[in-house]
Amino acid sequence: MSFLITRSEPHASKLATQLAALGVSSVTVPVMSIVPVEVTGAMRSHLMNLDCFDIVVLISANAADLFVAQVDQYWPQIPVGLQWVTIGQATAQSLAEGLTELSYSEIQIPEGTDSEALMSLKLFEQINEKKVLLVKGEGGRNHIQQTLTERGAKVTELVLYRRQPAMEFQSQLRTVMSSGPRFIQIASGDSFLNVLAMLGASLSSPFWQLGSTIWLVPSDRVAQLLTEHGIARTQISVCDGASNQAVLAQLETLLS
Q: Residue 114 CA to chain centroid, in angstroms?
């Protein structure tokens, strides 16, 4: 059995180790490169005035890692009174490990990993005039900013990175895909679109003649994206989020 991991490090190696413990062989081909953006004066101002915000929302583990690296330059200790929110347990773990004075239990995490789940948190029910710092990558998750603003919050976006296809792994991805992996892990819609970009494949390509391959995706929204690109719904299995734990739980269900 072969399992294609499309995550970047360090999450890919952790998942590979966990799969090996289940007797599942895997190969890793990163499909996304995370490129930190140049820190501007406005961005530094937001970081230096962190204590002026009421709530900090971090969209991804990459956002958390880069945020911690920047905050450490300006705040020996994080300001008190801030409320912290992350999408996903992996993001919360990265934040808590980076900001050692912040405990994991202090971070609010929605049950789901989509924008709608985040907006359903009780914290965001009465948000009028609250100042929210939204830490994220370039593009994506625009629904969060829009919804918070509609509810009366004053939202500041702190964009710390951009995503791009990891074209340096294009040849490796083509080789693995042509062999027909049994399972393919996809962490987001962007990850899937990067697979398309790296393969340069049309829907009639042999790359897509993978009748027995199961795509493990983090949400119904990503599943819909795959079906729009010609992948049968019967070949898509929706995990309870994008974390390694969610992927493993869904895989164990499928194998049983």
A: 10
**pLDDT 10s digits, 232-250:** 899 999 998 888 888 999 9
pLDDT digits (tens, 9 = 90+) for 148-191: 999 999 999 999 999 889 999 999 998 898 888 999 999 988 89
Contacts of 145 (CB under 8 A, 6+ apart): 134, 155, 157
Q: Is 95 helix (H, G, I), strand (E, B) or coil?
A: helix
DSSP for residue 127:
-
pLDDT tens digits for 15-49? 999 999 999 999 999 999 889 999 999 999 999 99
* CA 256 to each of CA 91, 251, 252: distance values in angstroms, whole numbers, following the listed order: 29, 9, 6
pTM for this predicted structure = 0.77
Residue 57: Cβ within 10 Å count: 28
Q: SS3 for 187-255, per residue?
A: CCHHHHHHHHHHHCCCCCCHHHCCCCCEEEECCHHHHHHHHHCCCCHHHEEECCCCCHHHHHHHHHHHH
Please enumerate, as own/partner, the contacts of 149-157 that have beta carbons within 8 Å and a separation of 24 or more. Answer: 151/124, 151/127, 152/127, 152/128, 153/124, 153/127, 153/128, 153/129, 154/129, 154/130, 156/46, 156/53, 156/131, 156/132
- Of 181, 184, 180, 178, the residue nearest 250 (C-alpha): 184
